[in-house]
C-alpha cells in the first residue's frame, strides 16, 4: 500500500521487511526508525487507501466513562486509545487498524464491537499520558530548551533538519553538534527526575542479560542492569520510548524501572557484556552482524546496491598487461562488493573509508564521529580486484603501485551527490586506500547549523562580521574545520565583497566565491597563489 502510494520505494520496502524479520517489530515502526517515512505519512495512507477515518486526538473531548471502559493495562499493551462508546460499539484510535489481536482483546474486555479509526503513535501516547495519568508527555526539544542545552533558534534548525531527514531528533541534534549525548542525558535526567547511571562502573550479571536478547537491546538502545522479583531495571537512552518499554515488559514479564545513560555507553556495554562470539572484539561483532559478512552477502544483493548507488566512471586507455586487471575489477561480484562498502559507509555517516592490507586479510574500516570502527575483513584474494576497481572509478593508473596517487569519485546516493577524495599509499602488504567522504550539502550549512552553543555562536558571528582581522580554525581530522570555514564564508557572502579561497583540494564549490585549487606539481603553491591573490583586489581570503 505504501509502495503503491509512492511513499516508499521497492528498495526501502525490501530493507524494511528484512529488518522487520530480524527484530519482529511492526513494519510501520521499522519504516519510521529507518527514516523511510513518517508516522503521519503512514496514517494518511491508511486513511486514504483503506477507508479508515483519521482522528486528531488533541481536538477530542473524552468522556470519563469511556476511559473506565478500557483499562490502562490494555491501552498500554496495544497502544490504543478509546474515543467514544455508543450503541454501535466503541470507537478506538489505533496506529494499526489491522491489529486483530488488539481488536479481539478490546472487544472481549468491553463486550462491544470495535470501530477502528487511525491516529499516530505520538498522538496516542500523548492522549494516554493526559487522560489516564493526568499529565502531558514532554517533548525532547522542549526539555533541552528548558534545560538551556539548546537555544530556541537551534531547536528550530534541528526540527527542520529532522523533517527533511526523518531521523530521530536526538540523532539530528548530535549530528549537527548542537549538543552531546551526555548533554541530552543529563537534561533528561534533571527534567524528568530519572536517575542517570554511569554504565562503566555498573556490573551486570549473566542472569539479567538472559532475560533480553542482545539483538533487541542493541536495536532499541537499552540494556538491562538489574532484576528483582517484581521488576527489571533498564538503562535507556530515550526513557520516553514507550514502544521499547512495552516490549521489555512483555518479554521479561516484569514491571520496568528506567534509568538514563547515553547511547554510546549503552552500545559499549552491550558489546562488553553480551559476549557470545569468541575470537572477535565486541565492536567488530556488532558491525559484522549488520554487514552480514561481505564476502558471502554481496552475491545475494540481487542488484539492490547498483540500483541505489550511481557511480560516474570513465573508460581509460589500457595495455595488454592492464586489461586482465581491468576485466577482473569490473566483474559483477567485485562491483557489488565495492558498491556495498561505499553504500554502507556513507549510510553510517563515515567521514573516511580505509581499506588496509595486512599479512592475512584486507581490513575495511571507517571513521565515524571521529572514531575508527571496523566494518569487515576481506580475504586477500579480493584485495587486488578491489583496489583496481576503486582506482578505475577514481581515474587513477591501475598499473602503478609503487607511488602514491590521488583522485576522485563522484557518485549519487538516493538522489544526493557525494564526492569521494581518493588517496593511495604503497605499503609492505600492498596499496592502502583512504577515501574522504565529501558531502557538497555541507557547504550549504549556515553558521547556525554547525553545532555552536549560544555563547560561542554569538562570539563567532561577531568575529566574522568584523571588517578586518584573522580567524584561525584548528582541529583533528573530521572535526569540522572545512564546514566551519565554509559556513563562515556563506554567512558573509554577498555581491558587495570579493571572496577568494586557496584550497588543496577544493572540497566544496560555492557559487559567488572564487576558489583556487592548489597544484604543487605545476608550481601553483600556497605561497605563489597568495601573492597572486593579493593583486586580485580581495576583501576576504580563505586559506
Automatic annotation (TrEMBL):
Domain Type II secretion system protein GspE N-terminal: start-end pairs: 51-134, 192-274
Molecular functions per Gene Ontology: ATP binding; ATP hydrolysis activity
Any one of the GO CC terms: plasma membrane
Keywords, alphabetical: ATP-binding, Nucleotide-binding
One Pfam family in the UniProt entry: MshEN
InterPro entries: P-loop_NTPase, T2SS/T4SS_dom, T2SS_E_N_sf, T2SS_GspE_N
Ranges of residues in domain Bacterial type II secretion system protein E: 328-543
Homology family: Belongs to the GSP E family.
Protein name in the entry: Type IV-A pilus assembly ATPase PilB
Organism: Candidatus Magnetobacterium bavaricum
